[in-house]
Amino acid sequence: MTTETKGLILAGVGGQGVILASMIVADALVRAGHDVKQSEVHGMAQRGGSVFSHIRWGAGVDSPLVGQGTAEVLAAFEWAEAIRSVGYVREGGAVVADLRTIVPPGACQDRRSWRRGYPDVDPELFLGRRVKSRLIDAAATASELGNVRAANSVILGAVAAFLDIERRHWEEAIEAMVPPGTAEVNLAAFRAGSEASDARIPGRAPEPRGYAGPHLIDIRHDWCKGCDICSRVCPEFCLEVDPRGRLEIVDHQACTGCRLCELLCPDFAISVTAPTEQTPKPSEAVTNHG
Amino acid sequence: MTDVRKYLREWAMPHVLCPGCAHGIVLKSFLEAVDQLQLDQDKVAMVAGIGCSSRLAGYADLCTMHGTHGRAPAFATGLKLARPDLDVVVVSGDGDGLAIGGNHLIHAARRNIDITVLLLNNSIYGMTGGQVAPTTPQGAIASTSPGGNSEASFDPCRLLTGAGASFVARVLAATPIEMTKTIVEAMSHPGFAFIEIVGDCPEYFGRYNKAGGGAEMLNFIARQGESVAVPLTSKRFVNHVPAPEPRPGLRTGVLNREIRPVYSGVRGAVSDEA
């Protein structure tokens, strides 16, 4: 068949409702009288992996897969996934992206800063590609409506502005697909999404946890009995009990503040606190009593 | 994160417990729970009997009461009836709670009086010299069973479920965050709440059974735990009696939770509050 077909990509992270959203889009397209094919990838999603769905529609569709640079719209539920999938969008197409950032474990090589390996939220990354964009904060909008899990409907609302599907088809599809009892909030979320304007860019984020220096380890030697539990549980080998039974901090810089030593110290001898803005130098950060 | 040291009677520290004994971890977890629940220190009463575990009450800067051996639940019952405004927590050991005071414990559970019992199970009598306890595993060595314990041991959680405790949980001293969470749940539960906390006794049990020191024993306990999650939706109570264990493993988590009338001491009546 040689009729013209159109494509849509939905991309996000496991648990965001990408698959449900793609079922809603496909259902709305069927209701609008198109031939629709949909295909998805959701392996390892529960471990923070990406989930994406391809949808193609037209008078007759043979394959569900959307080629690079051919999609009408990319609906991205997460910032890094938006960047990952932006290559699918055709010139003049549209990107609807949630500004939400979900940093996958694999990108957190440095557990203290949580910075490495995750792209900045920077719309400049879209420049150079001639696409329309709508950057929204779907989770915040959905939370205001009372159910953060309706964020996927907010995104669909924003997507609807770029697709030629009648409103009633969208609403019928949402009512048919969402879990029982949530149709109202999802329809409200859809409307809010279709009216949403660009959200404020949160600057050169993401910094879920800033790194203000090593944690403060306070040891009360007068209470410590040298039982060795803390040094054995420390994943970073920060602590050591010397042959005389005295607990020493051997690598203060390596402390990530997990507090395992504090939680498992039977003698209340250790306390680990997050550094404040005026972080003392490591040598001063170690307080020794007794 | 608050430093729970502020809830300690600093003048009494360091405590008498042996190096590596998990009882201190339990005290810390309990104080963390008190902190999370934002309870007034003058409104929490810690009632203890006799034993290593019962020494914990002496170090907490709360209302504390040191009673006679095994009778902590009886003291706690009286205290709760006289002062219903207090949150009453019993801290007891396996020997104190299950042998010497077994009767008091099961009858407090039967009445469903609104107290919380923390039973620190270290599988042995620590304070008196490592004698065999009702929780000593079959085959384990104690000072009174040098050839290995020939008796079967109690499963405290099944015992208390049978006695009618409306909240029964088991946690491991090696998992302090879960322990704090469970203590918070237990203290918020209306009615009798029982938590068995599986800990170590490196000085007696560990030495006799060549189980190593505190770190080794906690590691061993942590590996034995087998978490069960009982689904619970609010307003719908689940009465789940754990099935006999097919293999040796400690089922941890909330094992029984139900809402039933709470004993208030009024003649012929029970409190409607639930």
Span from first to last CA of chain A?
Answer: 85 Å
CATH superfamily of chain B: Thiamin diphosphate (ThDP)-binding fold, Pyr/PP domains
Strand order within the widest sheet of chain B? 2-1-3-4-6-5-8-7
Low-confidence stretches of chain A: 277-285
Main beta-sheet strand count, sense and barrel state of chain B? 8 strands, mixed
Characterization of this structure:
Chain A has 290 residues and is of the alpha/beta class. Chain A folds into two domains: 5-195, Pyruvate-ferredoxin oxidoreductase, PFOR, domain III (Pyruvate-ferredoxin Oxidoreductase, domain 3, 3-Layer(aba) Sandwich); 216-289, Alpha-Beta Plaits (2-Layer Sandwich). Helices cover 27% and strands 22% of the residues of chain A. Chain A has nine helices and eleven strands. Chain A has helices at residues 18-31, 79-85, 138-145, 151-160, 167-177, 183-195, 229-233, 260-264, 282-285, and strands at 5-13, 35-41, 50-58, 71-76, 89-98, 132-136, 216-220, 239-241, 247-249, 270-273, 287-289. In chain A, strand 4 (71-76), helix 2 and strand 5 form a beta-alpha-beta unit. In chain A, helix 3 (138-145) crosses helix 6, helix 4 crosses helix 6 (183-195) and helix 5 runs antiparallel to helix 6 (183-195). By secondary structure, chain B is α/β, with parallel strands linked by helices. Chain B has one domain (23-239, 247-266): Rossmann fold (3-Layer(aba) Sandwich), CATH 3.40.50.970. Helix content of chain B is 30%, strand content 18%. Chain B has helices at 23-36, 72-82, 94-100, 102-111, 156-163, 176-188, 202-208, 214-224; strands at residues 44-48, 63-66, 87-93, 116-121, 167-172, 193-198, 225-227, 250-257, 262-263, 270-271. An eight-stranded mixed β-sheet of chain B has the order 2-1-3-4-6-5-8-7, sandwiched between helices. Chain B has a two-stranded antiparallel sheet with strand order 9-10. In chain B, strand 5, helix 6 (176-188) and strand 6 (193-198) form a beta-alpha-beta unit. In chain B, helix 1 packs across helix 6 and helix 3 packs across helix 4. Chain B is globular.
